[in-house]
Amino acid sequence: MSDQFNAHETVSWAKQRLDDVDTIISKVEKTSGKLKEDARTQADAALARLQASRAKVKSYYDQLRLEAAVVKSGVEDVRDALDAEWIEVESAFQAFLSAAKDQADTVRDVVVARAEAQRKSWEASFSELREQAENAVEKAREELDAAIKRLSDEAEKFQARIGEAKDAGDESWTAVKAGLADARAVHDRTIQKIKDAFSKLL
């Protein structure tokens, strides 16, 4: 798997995290007003933690995008930091759910909104992966067609040489053998290109 692919996947993963925390904050902001007294205080504290984490997640996401553009090794360090910060996001989210436990509708709305955001992110990822797979298949098909064409052309040349050499002497047979060796080398290279094209699909 290439560094470029890893960087792209990491940026996509970070974007999903950012979308997730944005959805959580949006729903928490809309629903925390329904809470009373101590629950409201706890929910506001959880919201403040979520917003602080969101700022960090956004910063990490922006950093990943910059680093992925030049495929730097620092992507892994940023991903580790983002993973660690995600623990805070989850902890703050659980604190909000705990504060809002008496408001079943509020909890349900937030959880449903988060699940919907995750579903959309997954669908976007699947769509992108499908497009990448289709592109890889098309490229492999083009390489395979070109390799088969080269092999066919060489087979025709060899067939013509055999036809010319039916009545030829030793010198002509030496040329035919050399042609056969050349055709064999082209055949082997072509078969290897076909195998390489198929291996890209797996």
TrEMBL record:
Chain segments annotated as coiled-coil in the UniProt record: 112-168
Superkingdom of source: Bacteria
Gene3D superfamilies documented for this protein: Apolipoprotein
Stored SUPFAM superfamilies: Apolipoprotein A-I
Protein name per its UniProtKB record: Uncharacterized protein
Entry keyword set: Coiled coil
